[in-house]
Amino acid sequence: MFGFFRKKPPPSPPAAPGDAGVPAPLAGRDGHIGAIEAITLDGTMHFFGFDFRSDLVLSPLIEDPALMARFASRHMAQRDGTHDKAYWRALVGFAQEGSELCSDEDSRRFDSRELATALDRLDRVRREGSTEPGFTIQYHLRYLLGAAGGWEVPEEAGSEDADLWIAQVAGEEPLADSMRLQEVASRLQAHLNALVDAAPGNWGTLFAVLRR
C-alpha cells in the first residue's frame, strides 16, 4: 500500500551556467543521494535518478544515456559525494543491464497500447459491473508514478490498497459487504488519475494514457 502524504514541493532551481540542455530535477530534488534506474516504454529505454532512502524519483525520464550522466553529475550525489559525467555514465550502463529497484525485467517494460486496453477494460467494469479476468495495472508503474509525484494524492482519491481494487476488478478477491464493483472500478480510476496528475514533468505526459 502506498504511503501517500501531502506536501508542497519546492520550486525547481534555475539552471547553472554550462547546464544548457540538462533538465531540472523534479520538484527541487537537487543534490539527493541516488542511483540510476531505467524503464522501457514502447520499446524505448528511459533513464531516471532515484533516491532509495526517500523513495523519490529525482529526474524526468531521459532517453539519452549521455544526458542522464550529465544530469546526475549536476544534480545527484553518491554516499561518498559528487562525481563527474564519466562516473555516472558507467552507472547508466549498469542501469541498461539491470535494476536495484525492480529485478523483474518484464515489470520494467510498459506498452502504451496495452495500458490503453487495460483502461478500456476498466471503463467496462465501471459501466457494467462485471469482472475482467486477468486485469492488471503493473505495481512497479504505479509505484514509480507515486515516487515521481512525491506521494501526493488528494484525499478524495482514496488511500486504500490499489492492489486490492485491481484484484477485485479481475475477480480474484471478493468485494466487501455492500460494495459494488462499479464503485471499486471508479475508485481505482480516480486513484490512477491522481497518480498521473501529481507526476511532474514528462512522467505525467508519457503515462497520460492512464488518465480517463
Helix/strand layout:
Layout: E1 32-33, E2 35-41, E3 44-51, E4 56-57, H1 65-75, E5 76-77, H2 85-97, E6 109-110, H3 112-128, H4 139-148, H5 162-169, H6 181-198, H7 202-206
Parallel strand pairs: 1-5, 2-6
Antiparallel strand pairs: 2-3, 3-4
Region (Disordered): 1-24
List keywords for this structure.
single chain, 212 residues, alpha/beta, 2 domains, 4-stranded mixed beta sheet, two-stranded parallel ribbon, 7 helices, 39% helix, elongated, disordered N terminus
What does this structure look like?
Residues 1-24 are annotated as: Disordered. With 212 residues, the chain is of the alpha/beta class. The chain folds into two domains: 26-105, no CATH class; 109-210, no CATH class. 39% of the residues lie in helices and 11% in strands. The protein has helices spanning 65-75, 85-97, 112-128, 139-148, 162-169, 181-198, 202-206, and strands spanning 32-33, 35-41, 44-51, 56-57, 76-77, 109-110. It has a four-stranded mixed β-sheet with strand order 4-3-2-6, sandwiched between helices. Strands 1-5 form a two-stranded parallel sheet. Helix 3 runs antiparallel to helix 6 (181-198) and helix 5 packs across helix 6 (181-198). The longest helix has 18 residues, at 181-198. It is elongated and about 55 Å long. Mean pLDDT is 91; it is low at 1-10.
